[in-house]
Amino acid sequence: LGIDSLIKAAKQHSVECLHPMAGNATCAGRAVRAHSVREPHLRRIARKGHVYALLPDFRQEEAEGYQAPVKLVGVRKASTFTGFCSKHDAETFARIEREAILPDREQAFLLTYRALCREVWASSADLPFLEEALGSFSRHPDPVWAATQATQMVCHFGYKCAWYNGWKQRFDEMLSCDDYRRAGYFAAFLAECPPFLCAGWAPPVHDFAGRVLQRLDSPTNLPEYVALSVLPRPSGGLLTLTWVGDPDGASSRLAQSLHNLSEDRLLGAVMRFAFIKTENVYFSPDWWEGLSDDERNCVLDMFSIGITHPERPQALANGVVPQLPCQVTKTEIELPEPAVIS
Ligand SMILES: [Zn+2]
User: Fold this and answer.
1) Ligand 1: distance of its center to the CA of 341 in Å?
2) Which of 245, 257, 261, 341 has the fewest Cβ atoms within 10 angstroms?
3) Is 141 exposed, middle or buried (0-12, 13-18, 19+ CB in 10 A)?
């Protein structure tokens, strides 16, 4: 995997619409800024139009003791990405933009697809930092250490690109023929709007009981991913894991292990997943500022664990998280249908 070919491939994604039918004849111009967490949802937890966001700095991530900074951002900017032209954005995501999330298979597919497309876009946005980091390695006083680091970084990035491209093709085919049978979801309904919102995408490695689900060790072995959405509903809120995969695959088993937890452990488990495995997370300023220093540090430590270390088996199973002021009222799970062998 050469760095030049990766950069070339990723740059193609950065301004063009990601819709499978995208092209000069079908798109309404270039890709526009759209929200991955809807703006009206962000407004539900905002104070004076602002929420706290996690803004990791790719250049600092390798540093010892790195803690991702959490900063106030305006809701117009928070969670935005440039993935689709205005026409394809409106057409593709109407069922999760204009309707309440139930969820059903189609909405589960769309939530997962948008999370994937955001990551495809984000990985091309990471490229200037990757180039910069590789440049600084070439000037490092310890060339052997620097070469190892650079190889790891390129390898990590290359694997990610290969996996994203693999999934993007599959999702595009399903979207093109309106076939959502391979989508599954787990949903937990809340009596209150949660104080943090999330639209994340990550490959599960261990489940919520610490069992191994899959390994991320080859660019040709496509790992399963899940999207985590934490969002308000007209009354209350919703936590939902959505994915496309096999009924006995890593994502289905992750969701089942979450479904098996008692209600008092479920919220903490979802928070650990959001904070360790994803970074597209937004906090209510009143809630974040109301936490003790210890509680805030717990959350920040989880973000930095996710960035700098391989996942511990018990990472999602145990660990102190702040108490959420929410009550689970109902849970639902729907596994994907098995693949049809033709
Ligand atoms: Zn388009």
Assistant:
1) 33
2) 341
3) exposed
